[in-house]
Amino acid sequence: MEKRQELYAGKAKSVYHTDDPDRLILHFRDDTSAFDGQKKEALARKGMVNNKFNAFIMDKLGDAGIPTHFEQLLSDTECVVKNLDMIPVECVVRNLSAGSLCRRLGVEEGLELNPPTFELFLKNDEQHDPMINESLAETFGWATPEQLAEMKALTFKVNDVLKALFEAGGMLLVDYKLEFGLFHGQIVLGDEFSPDGCRLWDASTREKLDKDRFRQGLGGVIEAYEEVGRRIGVDFG
């Protein structure tokens, strides 16, 4: 597969065209950012760790019958994915209270949420990814009711698979965000799943093992990501 011109450069990944219009190459960089890009840093090994972590998770989800855009690893920092027509809506599931939920509602961190909550956010950096609902998504043409229903069902299926996976590694899946797109009309999971886009705590100590270590200046960010990977069987080589 021939790697061609850059299509897009995000906060932590770059996307490249290939000679196949249905396939793209994702390059995971070492860049890390938080608070809408106000805090930035390059962390050694991060691109490799997130690329291999994401590949492992996407394979697990694919084995569970969840359609994903991931196809194969190309190198330590690159992989091949399907070229999706992305839906600009993020799906968020929360199993425990943390982050913006605590700030919005004034609830304490770490409450078990039963049933887990499901939220939608518009993917729009300029507007700071505002929270939306199904009615707004339909009215403004961001997603159809049928697409939203399928995205919600897949998001909760991901929850079932990954809660069990992380629990087996002695961890709690606190919350996470997912993005979806269309591939020849089918709803498919896109973007990435890594500790950059979810919260993971040690089940015994509730030590934070995710991007909150960067946000809160706790240090040991990549070491925590690698620890999470080792506990669930990721081979970082």
Number of strands: 13
Q: Return the structural class.
A: alpha+beta
Note the overall shape.
Answer: globular
Q: Give the domain tally.
A: 2
The separation of the N and C termini measures 24 Å
Would you tell me which CATH topology of the largest domain applies? D-amino Acid Aminotransferase, Chain A, domain 1
Helix proportion of residues, in percent? Answer: 25-40%
Please render the helix and strand layout as text:
Layout: E1 3-9, E2 13-18, E3 23-28, E4 31-34, E5 39-42, H1 46-63, E6 70-73, E7 78-82, E8 85-96, H2 100-105, E9 112-122, E10 131-132, H3 134-139, H4 145-168, E11 171-183, E12 186-189, E13 198-202, H5 212-215, H6 221-232
Antiparallel strand pairs: 1-2, 2-3, 3-7, 4-5, 6-7, 8-9, 8-11, 9-10, 11-12, 11-13
Can you describe this structure?
- It comes from Litchfieldella anticariensis (strain DSM 16096 / CECT 5854 / CIP 108499 / LMG 22089 / FP35) (Halomonas anticariensis).
- The chain has 237 residues and is of the alpha+beta class.
- It has 2 domains: 3-82, Phosphorylase Kinase, domain 1; 85-220, D-amino Acid Aminotransferase, Chain A, domain 1, CATH 3.30.470.20.
- 30% of the residues lie in helices and 35% in strands.
- Strand 2 and strand 3 form a beta hairpin.
- Helix 1 runs parallel beside helix 6 (221-232).
- The radius of gyration is 17 Å and the shape is globular.
